[in-house]
Each structure stands twice: as structure tokens, then as C-alpha cells.
Amino acid sequence: MRNALLAGAFPLILTWFSSQCLVGQTSYPIQSQPQGGDRRGSYYYDDAEAQKVYDEADRIPRLYKDPKLYLHNMTLLARVERAGRGFGGGQMMTIGGNRYLVGGGVILDVTNPKEPVIVNQRAPGGEVAYNKALGKWVVMQSHQCCGVTVDQVQGKKPHAKIPPGTRVGVTFHDITDPRNVVEISHFSTGPGSFGTHGDGNYYDGGRYAYLSSRPPGHRGQMPYEEIEPVLQIIDVSDMKNPKEVSTWWVPGQKMTEESAFLRWPEAEKYIKQSQEKTWSPDWKYHYLHFHGPCFVPQRVEDGGNRGYCAWGALGLRILDFADIRQPKEVSTLDISPPFDAGIPVHTAYPMPQRKLAFINGETTRWDCHEGVVTPWVVDLRAEKFPMLIASFPVPKPPPGAPYNDFCFRGGRFGIHHPQDFKAPGEPRIDLMGYSWFEGGWRLYDVSNPFRPEEVAWIVPPMGERRGTEKALIEWDRKIIHVFSDSGLYILSSPVLGEPVLGPLRPERWSTEGLNVGTP
User: Does 202 lie in the same domain as 137?
Assistant: First the structure.
């Protein structure tokens, strides 16, 4: 009898012991630590109002925030705070040797990286590039609006009217004088459109811009709460009059393409979910649309013909732009299923010199309530058959942190963005950087593509919502700009080399033809 009781109790004892070993000891007291949690991954507060803020408003209460800055193999040169607003991202322009970051509603002079100065407090952000034909620095600003219900998509109800003065699409601005921004033109994505998703747009200063556009009549995120993105290419050779060139989508995205849609592996579950008109964050296939960007390493007008496009749960899509009016698919890499968490393919960063690409998803849920979303290495030696060959290591908390897993820090933990595709200098093809929301920003050695290794990192203090969003590396000055909701962090690292702490005119930029002819 005793042996039988012991045998029955053994699995329970083993389960309890394993949970202690895997995720730590009992809950952290909120009064003395910046975060709280227990071994089951749940969260609590001794302040009911704080719990409500966390659950309902997607904001991290004051008592919950980890206020510390953690660094490894990096040196902080400067930090810029903005009264709780933080920095969601930014891209760079140069005038002579002077350097400016454009984004987050401001233009920031970072020529002296130890003493950055905001020179414009009300500036549009977006895709920044020099347009040689105009002789001007340009920012392409994104505009979104107005979700659409399933009844509107199916024609049972009229589309909601866009409020007067609301823009959808993109607006081009002249930012050559950073203190005096001038609008050039606006391109509207049309009636019933949701506009464009800024994270998914790409413009390199050339003839074409590539938009993550939301025209009506395309399925995607369920159950049709929004019109979902497709790739829209516009001609901006006459920037005062941008014109659509072409649109491309995965067959089956268009609501009228029923037979193509029914061939999707996800179709049966998608239909069931839509018929029930319910939505759950546990639903795995709710990002079946273009996210973007679609990166084009060499401009089409200069002989380039490839676009590397992030299509959410529909995978990596490599497109042929030889005829820009009729893009064609070269190949696809679909990783969902089995890797269904978040937005499975949020960004695709090509490295043609090595016949590699790096793809990553985006974590969408808080507190690790979904599978781990990591970056992947893709082998493109056989372009028609792209293949995953490695994943990146999942970050571990820094020594001395009051949690033993980033899942217990609060907010989102998982991947979001690689370093910006457009940057001054020649990129190091042995390095990749990634933002991990509350896990900070990480720099990796990818000289061995089968085994990426972490070599430096920063974990900023927690802000109110999402943590670290993006980063830009000045390859020539060997400086890193990390954007987070607790501020902008300007850093150097011995991995890059000795930083240049003053003006420097770029000899080249990260992609061929980018920003040629700048003043």
C-alpha cells in the first residue's frame, strides 16, 4: 500500500520539483522588487488599480517597472528622454558630415553622439532617403485609419466614412532643412482603404516606393476586423504626382479568389473561425497577410529585380521585379505551421553577398502567453528552395536582475526588428542586431550562419508599454542608436570598434545607390 502511494505521488513530486528548477522559486514581493510573478507565469499586484491598468490598458504600472539599465560589452554615450513618450524608431539623414535621426515626431542632431540636440519638435517620421532627382532629403510618412468589419467586407453594410481631413496612404515631405519641413505630395490608397502600415513600407530614394497597403476586399487577420495588407508599388519619379504601378498579393488573399483560398492549409480553420464570428488570442492563424517591408537590395531602375517580403503567417515571399508592372513570385518559405506564434514573418533582411536572409516574427502577446518568437537564418543558395538553417538564441536576463526569465519582467518579450536596412557606411556581414521588446537589444555574431552567437546587449529601463522597438547602426562611425519607450540610447561597442565622436561625411551607404549625391 505504501509503495503504491509513493508511486502515485512520485509524478506530482517530480512535476513540482521541475517547475521550481525551470522558473525559479516563489513569487517576488512587489514592495521590494520592480516586478511580480509566480512560477505558473501569472502576475499579481497588491494594487487592484495597477492590475486593471496592466490587464485592460496594455500599460505597465509604476510599481511593476524594472528601473535598471543593464549593459554587456557596450558603453552608453548618451540617453535622450522625452517626457514619457520614448522613441519608437528613426532613420538617418546626413548633411555634409552632420548626422540627423528622423523619427518619433522629432529630428535629432546626433553629430556629437555624446550631446544630441533636438532641432525639430514636430516632424513627420517614416522612410527617409535622399532623392537625387529632386536634390532633396525626403521622408515618406505613413497614414492609417478606420478598421473594417466583416459585414462591410462582404458588402452587407457600407464602408465607414473616413472623418473629414483624415488621410490614408503616404505623404512625402522635404526635410533637407531639418528645422523647416515642407510637404511635397500625398498619395491616397483610396476610398474604403485602411491606409498603409508604417512598419511595412519601404522607400530608398529611387523611382519606386513599396507600400504595405490595405485596399478593400482582401482577407487576412480574422475575423475580418480590418482590411488586410497587400504589396502596392507606386512610381514617384514625379514626386508631386505619385502613381500606382502594381499590386501583388498571395493568391487567395483577395476575397473573390475562393478556390485559391481553399487550397491554403489554414482555410478550414479560418472559415470555421469566421463563421463563428469569434476571436481568441489563442487563434494561431490570424496574420495571414502581408506585413512588410519588402526590401529591395538593388533598385529596379539600376538593374535590381528582387524583393524580399515578409508575409506574416504566409511566410517569406521572394518576388521578381524584372517587370515592375507585373511582379512574379520566385519562391516562398512558409514556417507557419509549426511556428505560429505572433506574426510569424514580420521582417525579412536579405544579405545577398552571402546568399542568406534573416527573418523574424513579432511577439504580440504579453507575459509569454504564446510560443517563443525568434529570428531565423535562411539559406538562399538554391533561391527557389529557401531553407531554414538556424535560429538565434533566446536572451537570458542579466546578472543581478530581479527575475530569472524575461517572461517575468512584464509586457512583451520576444523579437520585433533587425537593425535598420538603410544606414551610413558599409554593413558588417558578420553581424546582426535584433530588438526583443522587454528583452532589450542584442548584437549577434553571424559569421557562422549555423550558430549565431550573442556578443553585446543593452536592456533599458522599462517604460509604459513595449520596451525596445528598433535600432540603427552607423557602420562608418561605429555607433548604435537603440530606440525604446524609455528613451533613445546612443552606444558604442568594441565589437564594432572605436567610435567616431564627431562629423563624418559618409563615403557610401548600406545598399547600392542609396543616398548618392547628398549635399
Answer: yes
